[in-house]
Amino acid sequence: MKPTVAILVAPGTNRHQDLAFAFSQADCDHVFIQVTDLPEESKNLSSAQIIAVAGGFSYADALGSGRVFSDELNHRIGGILHARVAAGVPVIGICNGFQMLVRSGLLTGDPESLTTQQQIALAHNDHGNFVCRWVTVAPVSRRSIWTAGLSGTITCPVAHGEGRVVASDKTLTYLQDNDMVALRYVNHDGTPATGRGPMNPNGSIDDIAGLCDSSGLVLGLMPHPENHVTRRQSRSGSPTGIHGLALNLFKSGVQHVK
């Protein structure tokens, strides 16, 4: 029997169909859960083996990307997402989904920190513009169940205006020391982007493209791996071709729950 991923959808989400397709290629069924249908649809959230938060512009990014989405989920279902992670359920949030996971506290710095303030933020791109282009990322974390078995690089699009990961020096050191930097922006040849555009498309500190939590179950990333899981989706003239596919990232999450 195939596992099922519950894909959370809010007003303004627009990548949920792409995400469902990516999981289908990894041999996983899906169910869409509209945040406006919660808590009535909580049973589908509680029975799913994986939870995913799709990208888009939830609530038109009002008050900051992912903020209203996070607040609405907290209002409707409280700590169910945290409880599902505590029960061993993998979670992935892409682009706006990453922003929501950070706002919700599922992706933070030191979980033992006494501060109640958000330790990580996704700020406006350093150049001040919305960016939509292909990038190359390298999976670098062995802690994350999503990236631990991956090698090589992934090419996929980015499409965001608020994707720059910012954190204090203390928080960044904690993330690095605890293998919680899951993916980094790199050049086509796999060498570090060293903060420079266009390969680091937003100015993220330490070239961070994605982060995991301390359990390794939760992954948030700004690029859209769901848009490069088949060779047909490869951009014309791609230097990496099929070797840049992101399908194995989704297969890793699915394999973890089989």
Task: Describe the overall structure.
With 258 residues, the chain is α/β, with parallel strands linked by helices. It has one domain: Class I glutamine amidotransferase (GATase) domain (Rossmann fold, 3-Layer(aba) Sandwich). It has seven helices and eleven strands. The protein has helices at residues 16-25, 42-47, 67-77, 80-86, 96-104, 169-177, 247-257; strands spanning 4-9, 29-34, 50-53, 91-94, 120-123, 131-139, 154-160, 164-167, 181-186, 208-212, 218-221. Helix 1 links the parallel strand 1 (4-9) and strand 2. Helix 3 (67-77) crosses helix 5 (96-104). The radius of gyration is 17 Å and the shape is globular. The termini are close together.
